[in-house]
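Worked Example 4.2. Read the sequence first, then its structure tokens.
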Amino acid sequence: METTSQTPPATAEDTARRRSRRTTVAVTSLSAAVMTLDATVLNVALPGIGDEFAAPLGHLQWVVNGYTLAFAALLLTAGSLSDRLGRRGAFAAGMAVFTLASLACALAPGSGWLVAARIVQGAGAAFVFGTGPALIAGAHTGLPESARRTAMGIFAAGGAAAAALGPLVGGVLVEFAGWRSLFLVNLPVGALAVACVLLWTLPQPRSTGGRVDAAGAVLAVALLFALNYGLLTGSGQGWERPDAVAALVACPVLLAVFLLVERSRGDGAMLDLSLFRIPTFVGAIGLSFAARVTSFGMFPFLILWLTGVVGLGALQVGLVLLLMPAGIFLLAPLGGLIARSVPVRVIMAAGMALIGAGLVWAALALDQQQGWAAIAPGLLLVGVGAGLITPHMMDLAVSVVPPERAGMASGTANTFFPLGTAVGVAVFGAVVSAVVGARVAEPGRATAGDFTGLAGAAAETARAAYADGLALVLLVAAATAFACALSSLVLIRARDVHGNGAGGPR
């Protein structure tokens, strides 16, 4: 007698869970793209904002840095609070705040209003971006590791592509619709995201640890704000500024107090310090930091070389920089499939090694006469390497903690993204300034890639000095990437994965 096996029909609960997973991945990925875009897109609009409001340079800098500082300072707190108060609600609330703040930005009657609205925007973005990876991890509980990794890859690809496309998208919108359109486009996206999350995603388990750690939250915000403020202000406006010095001096004190408070809170702490005893978690943190140092940290100086030395326009620069996200966009969604046959630690090491190799290529190929074409292969290598590591960075952080602490883990790892950018910009800015200052009698604005006040041999010397400074920056970034590649082989371990000794990172 012949028998046939049939797959049981899907229940209503199965259908709801599949819809919830798809909605979660789609909404969080789209939101990550919007949050990242708003961190980069506004730079091209600053001249128009300055003209309309007659705003001083300090206000224009705060239009950019206000968002970045609020975002960086609140990421850790947002991730931890979402575990206790509910990730779905935290995500929806963050997106609602971000959307309303975007409307306030679009309607801003002056630069002061715009700065305030940008700070609120950054706060909302922190709750969206800090909660997104945890939502994805929770939605894929019980499924194969490859499914979660693929979803994380889509989330990461959205943010990475938006980061690289920011200047290009911003230029097009400002050119044809004005700078206020940069904020108006957020309104339909935000409304759609809030509706989809509340209507079509399922609730996720909350952390059972007692009261909210208010003291830890306040100290974390103060510490991260002081650190990022000191680095951004010092690198942008001078390390001798009293506010920059005070912020950086306060950091070790705030860190010591924060660690003491968190240690005393035990299981009720906002940040579980025992996570840092897990090598894979430490590896994920290091990768998050190094990824931004080797990308956003050196981006400003590469852009200044393309514009000031090579002579490209803003649109041309945007097109050249598309070489990097091409690899990320193509490879990141395939992260789960690649990890089925290749150990994750090997993928991460190979990705960081490719980034390092691409940066070395670009450093050795810098040539004013050949222009951007000489460094194009290097930028492609960097993009391919980033595409390999991007889908796994967030997944590594959340895979080694219990599901109810995924928000804390993703918030902690996400915190090191803006920190890596700030440290990279600060260190690399000092490198370029030192190289140019040593070879140009009156460097002036030449350290920022502006050679308009120079002529003849002086201008050529300044351009060559800037190119040499950028080459040194690329080599330092490459060394960082190679060091991270080696550490990935040591730190990332299969046995660290929560509740699964063999199915996670190998």
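Now turn to a second chain, presented in exactly the same format:
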Amino acid sequence: MAEILIRNAGHILTMNDTREELRAGDILIRDGVIVAVGHGLSTEGEVIDAAGCVVTPGLVNTHHHLYQTLTRAAPGGQDALLFGWLKTLYPIWAKMGPEEMYVSAQVGLAELALSGCTMSSDHLYLYPNGARLDDTIAAAQEVGLRFHATRGAMSIGESDGGLPPDSLVEREAAILEDCIRVIDAHHDARDGAMVRVGVAPCSPFSVSRDLMRDAALLARDKGVMLHTHLAENDEDIAYSQEMFGCRPGQYAEDLGWTGDDVWHAHCVKLDGQEIDLFARSGTGVAHCPCSNCRLGSGIAPVREMRDAGVPVGLGVDGSASNDAGNLMAEARQAMLLQRVARGADAMSAREALEIATRGGAQVLGRADCGQIAMGKRADIAIWDTTGIESAGSWDPAALLLAGPTRVRDLLVDGRRVVRDGRMATLDLPRVIARQNALAAKLAEAL
């Protein structure tokens, strides 16, 4: 049995059911599972000295488009609203292929890992030039993060009144067939699973109502989760009302897209009735504050959602609408935006960190993760608070107020993914060099 002892942590934020916090505490891990949390623990296995560190559950990213790490700060989309931004970038993304999907996922997941993230979802909804969901799953397995890959899709192109170019849409029958293929090939429903697969038509403005309904039926038949974009900005609401004669919440409910096996990205413009619907049904939300700011979409009503009982996690969203994949920075931004909108007492640093850890695990249906507690998976972030970011802090555990945004050590299922601030699972400089070469090639192709 492989054992690891995290010893003498300056402060442990467990995020367990009582939100217990320990000073000078220890965490004992055996075969990827937390078996004890307390003081004076011992092992004959590996010991990680956590003196001067804050230890938290690994952060959870509930919404991403990893392929977009190849189009950060792209010209023409830097100052556009959602629909204009998409129309600028679709032709670039259409030139990608399997290698672009693989390398961009490596870079995006490594960036997340260095920010303390141990589990990430990914919403891949375009498959140009032979790209497949398998490309990103392979990248995640190399990086070592727990991965929820969602098989996205677009089926309504410009010629049929949709937003994406016709070259990026797929036949709906083929979409459903490939959903079955990737679920059968990769989905692991067991506790401790490193890979799960979800079904994720891109958005109400890029697929038909029939595909949304059929996708929900397929997902429930296969026992997997459902994901899409919803109520992202005013354009999104106007499209729903014009095309479907209803708000996005009713659209989702009518097509079977509510329930504790569903989570929606953004939800910036949910109204009170929709928040109540999500709370009653257990429907989750991936809140993406930095992307919402970048695209001018607005401030999501996270305080109202949380108070109503809606499960809320955080997402960095695509790196072409955020330009960064730092989940710690995302948590801070979530906290600050709620304060801007609703006052300085609207959200504490600890609550925002809870949303980023335990909250995200709940949204992704992972009761086995998101806490430092006996029986939970050993997904753990160790933050060095002896540096300048925390110098003078009276409360080192208030990481989002005064603390590092880059993790010192990161364990996923008890395996070291980040060691002393560096990736331990891949040659990151080599991967970055290849990423930059691929991005330059895309730019030249324009």
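Notes for the reader: The chain has a mean pLDDT of 96. The domain at 3-57+370-423 is CATH 2.30.40.10 (Urease, subunit C; domain 1).
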